[in-house]
Amino acid sequence: METDGQNMKALAAVLYSPKERLRIEEVEVLPPQVGEVQVRMHAAGVCHSDLHVMKGDLAMNMPIILGHEGSGVVEAVGEYVDSVKPGDHVIPIWRMSCGVCEYCLSGRPALCDVGTKMRFTGLMPDGKTRFRNEKGDSIRHYAGVSTFSQLSTMPEGAVVKIDPEFPLEQAALISCGVITGFGAVFATAEVKPGSTVAVFGAGGIGLNVIQSARIAGATRIIAVDTFASKQAYAESLGATHFVNPKDGDPVAEIMKLTDGRGVDFSFEAIGMASTVEQAYDSVKKGGTCVVVGIAGPDERSKININSLVYAEKTLKGSIYGSTRPRIDLPKLMELSRSGIIELEPLLTKTYPLSEINEAYEALEKGEVARSLILPQT
């Protein structure tokens, strides 16, 4: 059934300016237009990517409703939508792709210009928004999906229909953290059995890099994090060693753990110039360093070019795990059902929408592996 065009009211977490707390307020959600869907969000992930915007590290037009990781149920659809219908369970894709450009056709949809433009303008493809505040002012979308709203209108191309039997909270975890970590290991780095791996950052992405490296058959997986509390999370998902930079140079410790050679693969899942440099310095001759963490647009790292050539090191970036979400998300669900991918150890806590600021405080303090906002509570 298509929408009747009626505007809806919903609670949402709105960011009006950087370094301010998110405001929980009632917003008006416009109905889906041609080729759009409206989703009632069931769960939304608390991720560092949104925190970068909140802290001002990533500049976005405001006001804006953040949230890019999540799951929900289709509430209504616009004209000519045929891939989903009201009642379908879906995962939002925070990097929508057009399906016809060179990047999409070559299997790299996360690089599609359509998704890139939506992410940085905060607008729908028609150049408008579907959110209004009580003053009638437009509110921007984040990554085209804005999962920190009870209701969110987004393009049909920004949702993937999933099995309704799969738990929605677990589906939310898969939508960003799991697929990004898994893809970084299998699609970007192509980690081989018997490899040695170092992972800088044991947060939501890093933990999934760790468990994916274990699945890939890595024999030594070294987790690096400044929060000692992350050691238990990392080890439960496959880390064989834990290094805390507060105790000394992590590169030196990684070299010690690998008999002075370095690791075959390193992953930077924080988004800092210094940790990118450390991750790169940690790989052996012929090794590969993959940067997954999101840094500020002006961030620069100093890389030893001599070693890049003489040691034949590789430095690569990975967005959305270099995956194809429409194909890979359902596969990850099957891997979860079979017990190969573990989801339960990732979820530390859930919060109602009213406690979203507290959820981000816990994230910054390193108190959680991954947490979810339940917008309907």
Set out the fold topology.
Layout: E1 8-15, E2 23-29, E3 36-45, H1 48-55, E4 64-65, E5 70-77, E6 89-92, H2 102-105, H3 113-121, E7 131-132, E8 138-141, E9 151-155, E10 159-162, H4 168-189, E11 196-200, H5 204-216, E12 220-224, H6 230-236, E13 241-243, H7 250-257, E14 263-268, H8 273-281, E15 283-291, H9 305-310, E16 314-317, H10 325-337, E17 347-352, H11 356-364, E18 370-374
Parallel strand pairs: 4-8, 11-12, 11-14, 12-13, 14-15, 15-16, 17-18
Antiparallel strand pairs: 1-2, 1-4, 2-7, 3-5, 3-9, 3-18, 5-6, 6-10, 7-8
Structure description:
With 377 residues, this protein is of the alpha/beta class. It folds into two domains: 190 residues, Quinone Oxidoreductase, Chain A, domain 1, CATH 3.90.180; 147 residues, NAD(P)-binding Rossmann-like Domain (Rossmann fold, 3-Layer(aba) Sandwich), CATH 3.40.50. Helix 4 crosses helix 5 and helix 4 crosses helix 10. The protein starts with 7 loop residues before the first strand and ends with a strand.
